[in-house]
Fold each of these.
Amino acid sequence: MSQYRTFTAADAVEYARQYGGVENPESLVESQEIGDGNLNLVFKIFDRDGNSRVIVKQALPYVRCVGESWPLTLDRARIEAEVLQIHGQYCPEYTVKILHHDPELAVMVMEDLSHLAIWRGEQVKGRDYPQASAQLGEYLAQALFHTSDFYQHPYQKKAEVIRFTNPELCDITEELFFNEPYEVHERNGYPRALEPLAASLRDDDELRLRVAALKHRFFSHAEALLHGDVHSGSIFVGDNTLKLIDAEFGYYGPIGFDVGSALGNLLINYCALPGLMAPREAADAREKRLSDVRVTWQSFADRFLTLTAEKSRDRALAWPGYGAAFLRKVWCDTLGYCGTELIRRTVGMSQVADIKTIEDEVMKVECVRQAIALGRTLILAAEHVDNIDALIARVRQNG
Amino acid sequence: MSQYRTFTAADAVEYARQYGGVENPESLVESQEIGDGNLNLVFKIFDRDGNSRVIVKQALPYVRCVGESWPLTLDRARIEAEVLQIHGQYCPEYTVKILHHDPELAVMVMEDLSHLAIWRGEQVKGRDYPQASAQLGEYLAQALFHTSDFYQHPYQKKAEVIRFTNPELCDITEELFFNEPYEVHERNGYPRALEPLAASLRDDDELRLRVAALKHRFFSHAEALLHGDVHSGSIFVGDNTLKLIDAEFGYYGPIGFDVGSALGNLLINYCALPGLMAPREAADAREKRLSDVRVTWQSFADRFLTLTAEKSRDRALAWPGYGAAFLRKVWCDTLGYCGTELIRRTVGMSQVADIKTIEDEVMKVECVRQAIALGRTLILAAEHVDNIDALIARVRQNG
């Protein structure tokens, strides 16, 4: 039985030889630790020719960017690997392939995606991947439908809810999404110039009520096995391909949380674009981003609806039209969680490259202001924004 | 370690001596098996003076009323005892006291309630317990609030959801409430004369969509630790007292399910009363039953609201006004589940004494027809019946 120890570069190579499924394991000779995230060690494993062949990822027993003073369960590595395996079962095209994982060591070995690029970085650089949004929508529909009550047997679903109970990682979301941005909190990261705007969120009675309802649904609505952290930094893109990674926040929650997080990150980029490039380029890129928002939702919704019509296994939920009725609730949730994502990425702790890359401070503040205003609008108006066209119109109205 | 064996009368006495907390255990000398339910052995344990002193209840590994061909998990005994212990922690006045339980033997020892009577039987006989509905509302509020996300720490809540995962008993509810009454099914128990009405439920598109949504919420909305089977046959009443028993269907589900089941059983009695007594008595009893409906909801809602204001521990959910906003959703759920209870108790398998006691066959059919019509109305109109007054008005309109 393996016992937890933090991997060295040499350990990672040895582990990849054993579990990487590479034809000549001895050809793997070197590793490079590339973890730029907040939580884990990530080793890229190279062969003798200098080609990277597999990835070895190990969870650390604390939050890496803070240090050992913030301990964090190693069980997240098991959850991440097992969520990706399940999502990979239903959407193999767009889920990173897990080759091996070991819950004791909190290690997984997965396919190397060096030929792809993280979508957020590409969006920041203004590079377009026209197929990505349709593929993301397809991933969301396949992964979420097949783990929902429409498809899973109630016994299996209940067992899976237990298996994917993820208290410590959910706690992070519960705090960072639904509490801190609406409070005076040392971890908040908004520009000082926006103090009045941040204060107005804290005092907005209607907003706080709606955020409470969104948090309550995050706590209690076990609709499907979520990825739990679908943002453009968890998505690799390339020529006609896309791969989801980083599912350690996975648990059974409201479907709109995953979909809303996805849309929210596209909209943050939309808000940031005027600070990232010249006006004409920014305007073009913004149109592409709005198209990404539209296509992500539409491909998710179309596929989800088709799946409910063709593959629902629960007798009651299979009633014609129920898939569409449920999807209307998912849409409302999506708008609300999209709003909380916009706010937690701007007011809260988890700032993103889209904003951080903006060099002009005045412009940066303006972009952040716009993202916060949009987030608030979506949370407040979720029940009155009827469809994707109305959402796009609201975004344009926002400036 | 104890190993499961079916108790004899003598085993029950011996067990009661050991775990009944009676001062002179040797004074317990006799037992009588009084289980009239569908699932369990229930022994009343008497002392030398012929006084019943404690109850020993043991789950059988199959559905008693069907036989060994329908096996059923013994784990329901653990769940029942543990639900009652938790509800008893928050509402000791109105929850039967569990003195001991053993999950291996599927046995619990509990306080004797021979001085009380089952509420359903009393309603059938036209006996009034004016305090019962306020006490039932109080029980529902205390039990459900203290196991909800308002009060429970997220880690504790998630652990409790696991502990009270109850697939086999939930499966019974999922079938009997949400599937069978809306299908041609051999277990359905409606009078043959109502075949056209039953058929019209099966064909009612809007109704089937709403029932699907109610089932989906039963599957996925883990709002609080439910009793799971709050009907007037699970409630003892007496002079100024009331005690909930029989919590084996407990699990984390939508709060409105428990509240709606409670109201639904009062309304079944309301519908049955004209068949149970002379017109003037029936009219009086119906007014009392409507008052019970009103007071049950109102005392539940008032206490729940007070508890959210005074004892909410989650920072976001504690926002002033959120308790009331959530309660509006609970109200809609309550109406819907109340409707499904009316229908599953009339169309479905689980017929009740209120109806079965009616001797006149024509009258019985009329009462059942009224209950089914009311159930359908409540399911369809749940979002348009704004408050308890509107509900009472709808009931009166129904006939």
Note: The mean pLDDT of chain A is 96.
Amino acid sequence: APVSEVLFFPSPVTCTEALLADPLAAAAASSSPCPCLLPHGESALSRLLRRLLSARRSLELCLFAFSCPQLGRAVTLLHRRGVRVRVVTDSDYMALTGSQIGHLRRAGIQVRHDERGYMHHKFAIVDQKLLITGSLNWTTQAIQNNRENVLIVEDAAYVTPFLAEFERIWKEYNPT
Amino acid sequence: APVSEVLFFPSPVTCTEALLADPLAAAAASSSPCPCLLPHGESALSRLLRRLLSARRSLELCLFAFSCPQLGRAVTLLHRRGVRVRVVTDSDYMALTGSQIGHLRRAGIQVRHDERGYMHHKFAIVDQKLLITGSLNWTTQAIQNNRENVLIVEDAAYVTPFLAEFERIWKEYNPT
Ligand SMILES: [Zn+2]
Ligand SMILES: [Zn+2]
């Protein structure tokens, strides 16, 4: 059945190391449980990470704000696995402290940003078939404190127009 | 077929008087075209207004920011038509100049707001069956200038959890 899921935030803080560790480390870890003091159950953030990490071929990100370290690690991990990652972001937010954009660029991920106006989207498209979108900016502040929603939609009626919007923005923004 | 629609913003400025006029005035207007200088075609804003104005029984609004006058008029019109309108909003934004919340309250619409935290949702539920949600804050600035998205979804898999989220927030926030 096609995926249809809704996540609400704020999300309790949980350990996401098992999701974000590389496969060899994860295999080692599975024999010895993580010693950290955080809860290790599911949370809205861990569910969001799982959906992102399901990417096998492509990931488009169109994000006003991106500073959450766990989400940054997930995107970098996908890039290292050979997934084609493309990111567009808002130039005003990009310069702020804690932005993940610099890390992504240094990892070799393609990032473009607007020169004017206000790019307020917060969506991701996984393998051209799964849309992840909502009110949530990808910041720790929003994830842990705000009332937010994220829809996960596997339906071409929504994915196709969002892909077209991504391609419009990708063409319009200058590569830098 | 169930509604599945995506709106992207910014929206060109168009005249929405025909949509927002009361029925008698609208009937009179249909014989004489509106004399204003704005374009009179469809736009993302006019499509959003049409979806809202389709409400016959209930409208739940959960909005971080609400200052767009046309959307404020649409909500007031629905209230006058006997639709049960309930609004929750963020207290920080509510106090800003141009907020529609004061108008809604003076019209007799029930409004509740949070006391702490950050209510960042931007969704509406029409007749408990149509979900309208996305990145768009209901401000003229966002509608006319920002890159934004709105999904319109008629699918219980999404509507039911959003209704439950609305009822949680409605109970939690103080009536004032
Ligand atoms: Zn741990
Ligand atoms: Zn006009």
Note: Helices of chain A lie at 17-20, 23-31, 44-53, 69-80, 91-94, 101-106, 140-145, 156-172.
